[in-house]
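Readers of this paper often ask what the protein records in our data store actually look like. Such a record has a labelled line for the sequence and another for the backbone structure tokens. The tokens are whole numbers drawn from a learned vocabulary of local backbone shapes. We quote a single record here, exactly as it is kept in our systems:
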Amino acid sequence: MLGETGVRFRVIVPDVDETPRPGEDPFVCAVRLAEEKARQIARSSDDDEIVIGGDTVVVLCGEILGKPADPAEATDMLRRLAGASHTVCTALALADRRALLCSGEERTEVRFNRVTDSQISDYVASGEPLDKAGAYGIQGMGAFLVDTLDGHLDNVIGLPLTLLNCLAGQTLELLGLAAGDR
């Protein structure tokens, strides 16, 4: 998605423990993790680079549904989500070598279709749910799970472009640059 905007970028995977802190609000957790990821990568970035750190959480009844550890956990998550609504929150943080520049989060409410155990089993057997928060990818085979969304699809995919544009504008303002300068 970022490539479609014309922005040149490279992907560097940070080594950040994504475990929520005891009692931590899920949405605060997402922002904290995005900030930690951005700071970690920014420390070794070039002077003229802006780092985008991101984290997506799937929240059902106040509980974060992370990436499932195995097919059984993916099956359990999908059964819990079936026919229910949940919140997808993606947080972004921008940093350069000197500092964290800004951060924010976007939320989308997602309602799942009622699906059968057989549909869930077939989907889990595909392997797709195993590396996805909440055990599904709306941009892939998991699209059949989703009934409706209230919010932006790109947020559920994992890169909320409206939020990114807002944060980029704040960053340019903070750095005293015009849009074409960086």
